[in-house]
Amino acid sequence: MPLPAMKVDLKSLGTIQTMIGAVMFMFGIVTQNITFAVSVNSAFFISGALAIASVDYHHPRLVKSSLVMNLISTVAAIVALVVLFVDVVRMSGELPPCQDLAKCALILLTVLLRGTLRVLLVFSVLEICVSIWTFVLTWKTRDSLEATS
């Protein structure tokens, strides 16, 4: 039995991209990696906002800029995935035993940072999927969006 086709609105995908960008921005601040938080996540946020705007205003330049930003967002998500994976691998390893309070606090921070980086990895994979999906849907509907302008 074939699976039913999933109806997805570009506006909802744009909202998802914007929310992922905002959440990853906040995680970037928590991990004190401001360069990652601003550079990579601004691409997610902008591509989501352009996807929403291209549905609302149907301007050909807006649709093309949404396509370009979704490509940039996909590349940024792939770069973020590689960087975060390298960070997780670099941080992996056995932790020293907890002997005094200072070492215990350091071990706790390391464990929390590992968990945060793994969550960011999951969000990066999700962002790759959503940005590709948004690009494909915008590409398929670009003629109908441009015809209504």
From TrEMBL:
This is Membrane-spanning 4-domains subfamily A member 4A. It comes from the Eukaryota. It comes from Pangasianodon hypophthalmus (Striped catfish). InterPro entries: MS4A (IPR030417). The keyword Ion transport does not apply. PANTHER family: MEMBRANE-SPANNING 4-DOMAINS SUBFAMILY A MEMBER 4A (PTHR23320:SF128), MEMBRANE-SPANNING 4-DOMAINS SUBFAMILY A MS4A -RELATED (PTHR23320). The keyword Transmembrane helix applies. Keywords: Membrane, Transmembrane, Transmembrane helix. The chain crosses the membrane at residues 12-30, 36-55, 67-86, 119-139.
